[in-house]
Amino acid sequence: MKKTHLSLLWSLLLFAACSKDDAPDPIVTDRFDPVFAQVLQARGYIADAKRIDRNEVKDIEMLDLEGGGWDSELGEFVYGPLTSLQGIEYFTSLLYLKCSFNHITALDISKNTALAYLICYHNQLTALDISKNTALTTLRCEVNQLTALDISKNTTLTQLSCYHNQLTALDISKNTALTDLSCDSNQLTALDISKNTALISLQCYGNQLTALYLSNNTALTTLRCDHNRLTALDLSKNTALTLLYCNSNRFTALDISKNTALTDLDCAMNPGDGTLFPIKAWFDNDHIPSFKGFGGDFQMNWSYDGSPITIDFRKAE
């Protein structure tokens, strides 16, 4: 009987020792980028950059690691010291991450599956994998060096800003919740927004688009498609538009007679060769869109006689 008790006691002690050895070490300092750790301490997220406990960061929901941003006195952008966010995987409760205006070259957020807001603009990212971040509602990754962006898994996105990258294609067919899309200043040759019926604001200027079909996007109030290669634009279904910039394209005519809500319009530099550019419009005397010109804002002298009018709009000299 005594031997049995000793054997059982030994087994329990051995099990306890093994369990202790298998338990994860809560100290994960060596798995963090040291500069990242220092910034975390400086901003009060952790107590000691030289001793980081995983339990200290696992419940943090918001991280603001933004660099300096625009300095009006210097007249230039000021960037922070971050080049890596290695260790971000231990922030398993993270909902909001802002790390813009740094020098980050890679960002692994595959373990941050609760993330709803990702703001990482003005970095040096060449790739961004957000396939595991299906809770994202806001993604701002503009002013990086992205050549591709897969957002097919991010069906809850309502705001996407990816301008000033090197994108040659952008598939947003799965992102039907989008209300705000800024994809300007890329290298897009096509943009299909037929499934994005919730869009309120679309900024796709500075690309290489030759066509843009807007008939399904009846909620649009803001459209900037200037500086593309568009030859025609059907706006007959977009009666909610208040701002339209379609300048510097290749239109030979423009019909905005159905867009009576317009308050801000720029359609200059069409067709681009200085020839007359007819505009079919309908405005009353108290509701004439302002025009954004090289000399500032001014009112176009459009007349109104109770019926649609045709205006000869000549390219600015």
Could you describe the 3D structure shown?
- It is a single chain.
- The longest helix is centred in the first third of the chain and has 21 residues, at 2-22.
- The model is unreliable at 15-21 and 294-299 (pLDDT under 50).
- The protein is built from three helices and 17 strands.
- The strands form three sheets. Strands 1-4-5-6-7-8-9-10-11-13-15-16 form a twelve-stranded mixed sheet, with no helix packed on it.
- The protein is elongated and about 75 Å long.
- Helix content is 11%, strand content 18%.
- Strand 2 (69-71) and strand 3 form a beta hairpin.
- It is an alpha/beta fold and 317 residues long.
Please outline the major beta sheet: 12 strands, mixed
**Assembly category:** single chain
The separation of the N and C termini measures 107 Å
Return the string of H and E elements.
HHHEEEEEEEEEEEEEEEEE
Task: Give a count of the beta strands, DSSP E runs of length 2 or more.
Answer: 17
Summary, kept brief:
With 317 residues, the protein is α/β, with parallel strands linked by helices.
Describe how the helices and strands are arranged.
Layout: H1 2-22, H2 34-42, H3 54-57, E1 62-64, E2 69-71, E3 76-78, E4 96-98, E5 117-119, E6 138-140, E7 159-161, E8 180-182, E9 201-203, E10 222-224, E11 243-245, E12 254-256, E13 264-266, E14 277-281, E15 290-293, E16 296-299, E17 309-313
Parallel strand pairs: 1-4, 4-5, 5-6, 6-7, 7-8, 8-9, 9-10, 10-11, 11-13, 12-14, 13-15
Antiparallel strand pairs: 2-3, 14-17, 15-16
